[in-house]
Structure formats: structure tokens, C-alpha cells
């Protein structure tokens, strides 16, 4: 009897055939795909750089050149430091710097503390944080002119809401924007209300990133609310606090909208004249663009120097 012929088993039939190797893409196809990708990326990058150069670098370079030039009858002449000397000998120069520094200090005392405290209060709520965040950020979404006009109504000495409240409380009425001693604090209060929403949300995001175990450990050690804030909250948010302080100093030293709309810029006896408003006067009231550019360049140098010192001190603290 003949032996049976060998046959394949069922497992052999079920075994999948090895996959075929993909055919290599032609070199020209890979090159075209890489070229298209790089052209798209570089095109978007070049567009951003061009926009930044036109709207940021060119004005800065132009201002630097104007600070050392004078234009008369369409002729441009180089005058060296003459524009800086003109600005320096202006009686309003030092008053503008004093008012700007006063506004910065008051804004730091009020505008830096209020958003941080507001963020701490909102963070303690377990429900309704979304509505509270919207309520705090709402003034930022309003047009600045509308917000300033609202405060101008509140500060009105005749029918303003603040004096109405003072009448009810039998307190002496105040000339909020007409009194040289009250005009700058009034501007600071309006500016704080208008701009605190963004800082409060940034602080709130930083607070929500603090591990809850740190607060639990502090509570086990018997720490109260203020001790937890001092020993846990502030150290954990020190980096964002220092960064926001730098940003606020740079922003407050360039204040213009609030005093310009509330007090007309100069204010009673020049009490709200700031450096940026003085630049505005030189450029648009006196038609002296060289002096305006020189004062703007001086402000840039001051802010750059302050920022450099701040960065140096922060680097030493981190080391």
C-alpha cells in the first residue's frame, strides 16, 4: 500500500503570509513634500517677522532717529542732544516724573494687592467660581472710554454717586477730580478697577496650581488663614508675583488714558501730568516731534534699566 502524500496542516493554512514591503517613495515625492511643508512654515514665519518689523521695529528706530533730529520747513537737520536739553529744562519735566512715580507707587499699593486678595477670595469658593471670574473680568472687556466716563460720573461734584453717598452718611463732599490732592488717588482707583480682572485671573490660576497637601500640613500645624497665606500661598506664587510686579510697573509708568479722560491730562495745577501725557503734548500740541521722541527715548531707557536690574536681582535670588 502506497504511503499517503504529505499535506499541509490547518495551522499552515491559517498562518498569514508575510506582509509585503512598501514600495519606497520616489525621491522626488519626498523632496516635494518636505519643500511644501518648509515653505508653508517659513512663509508664516516671514509674515510674522515682517508685521513685527513694520509695526514694532520701524517705529522704535524712527523714534530713536527723531530724538536727535529737528524738522523745519520740510528740512531735517541733526541737532544732537538739543532735544534732550529742551525736555530737561521744561518746568513740567520733573513734575511729570513725580506724578508718574506717584501713580506707580499708588497703583502698586492698591492695584497689586487688590487683584491678589480677590483671587484668594475666589479660590476659597467651591461653587460659582465661573460666575465670579466673569464678574471680575467684566471691567476688562468694557471699552476703556466707557469705564472712564462711568468713573467721571461717579466723581462728579454735583450729582456724582460718591458725593450722594457722602451726603447720606453726613460726610463732607469732595472735589474728587478738581482737588490737586485727590485727583491722582481718584485716577488710581479708576485704573485699578479697569485693569484688575486680568491680573486676578492670572493669580487665580497660580493659586489653583498649589498642591492641597501643603495647606493640609499647615492646618495640622495649627496655622490660621493669614499664616497659610504667608507661609504657603506667597512662597508658592513668588515667581508669578514678581513677574506681575514688573509688568505692572512698566504699564503704570506709561499711563495715559485714565488721566487724559478724567482730568484732561494735566489735571488741577498739573497734578495728573504724566510722562506719556507730556510726550503727547510735545507731539500734538507743540508740534515738536523731536522733543517728544527724546522724552519717549528717555522713558524707554529708564524702563529698560529698571527691567535689567530686576532681572539681575531675580537671577541672584534663584541662584
Task: Kindly list the characteristics that best describe this protein.
single chain; 319 residues; mainly alpha; 14 helices; 2 strands; disordered N terminus
Give me the Rg, rounded.
32 Å
**How many helices does DSSP assign?**
14
Mean pLDDT, to the nearest integer, reads: 83
Structural class: mainly alpha
Shape: globular
Physical arrangement of strands within the biggest beta sheet: 1-2
Outline the biggest β-sheet. Answer: 2 strands, antiparallel
Percentage of residues in helical conformation: over 70%
What does the secondary structure layout of this molecule look like, with pairings?
Blueprint: H1 10-14, H2 27-66, E1 69-72, E2 75-78, H3 82-88, H4 91-124, H5 129-141, H6 144-154, H7 161-168, H8 183-208, H9 212-220, H10 225-236, H11 238-252, H12 257-263, H13 275-285, H14 289-318
Antiparallel strand pairs: 1-2
Helix pairs in contact: 2-14, 3-14, 4-8, 4-11, 5-8, 6-12, 8-12, 13-14
Amino acid at each position: 500500500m502506497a504511503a499517503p502524500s504529505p499535506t499541509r496542516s490547518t495551522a499552515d493554512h491559517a498562518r498569514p503570509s508575510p506582509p509585503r514591503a512598501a514600495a519606497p517613495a520616489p525621491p522626488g515625492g519626498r523632496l516635494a513634500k518636505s519643500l511644501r511643508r518648509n515653505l508653508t512654515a517659513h512663509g508664516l514665519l516671514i509674515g510674522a517677522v515682517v508685521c513685527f518689523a513694520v509695526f514694532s521695529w520701524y517705529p522704535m528706530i524712527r523714534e530713536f532717529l527723531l530724538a536727535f533730529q529737528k524738522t523745519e520747513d520740510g528740512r531735517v537737520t541733526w541737532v544732537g542732544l538739543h532735544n534732550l536739553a529742551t525736555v530737561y529744562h521744561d518746568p513740567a519735566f520733573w513734575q511729570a516724573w513725580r506724578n508718574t512715580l506717584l501713580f506707580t507707587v499708588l497703583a502698586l499699593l492698591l492695584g497689586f494687592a487688590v487683584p491678589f486678595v480677590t483671587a484668594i477670595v475666589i479660590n476659597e469658593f467651591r461653587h460659582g467660581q465661573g460666575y465670579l471670574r466673569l464678574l471680575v473680568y467684566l471691567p476688562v472687556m468694557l471699552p476703556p472710554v466707557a469705564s472712564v466716563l462711568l468713573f467721571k460720573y461717579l466723581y462728579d461734584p454735583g450729582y456724582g454717586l460718591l458725593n450722594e453717598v457722602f451726603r447720606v452718611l453726613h460726610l463732607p463732599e469732595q472735589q474728587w477730580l478738581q482737588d490737586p490732592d485727590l485727583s491722582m488717588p481718584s485716577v488710581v482707583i479708576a485704573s485699578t478697577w479697569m485693569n484688575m480682572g486680568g491680573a486676578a485671573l492670572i493669580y487665580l490660576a497660580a493659586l489653583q496650581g498649589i498642591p492641597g497637601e501643603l495647606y493640609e500640613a499647615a492646618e495640622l500645624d495649627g496655622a490660621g488663614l493669614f499664616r497659610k497665606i504667608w507661609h504657603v500661598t506667597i512662597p508658592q506664587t513668588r515667581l508669578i508675583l514678581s513677574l506681575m510686579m514688573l509688568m505692572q510697573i512698566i504699564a503704570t509708568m506709561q499711563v495715559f488714558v485714565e488721566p487724559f479722560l478724567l482730568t484732561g491730562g494735566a489735571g488741577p495745577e498739573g497734578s495728573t501730568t504724566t510722562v506719556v501725557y507730556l510726550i503727547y503734548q510735545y507731539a500734538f500740541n507743540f508740534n515738536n516731534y523731536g522733543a517728544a521722541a527724546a522724552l519717549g527715548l528717555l522713558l524707554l531707557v529708564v524702563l529698560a534699566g529698571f527691567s535689567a536690574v530686576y532681572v539681575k536681582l531675580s537671577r541672584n535670588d534663584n541662584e
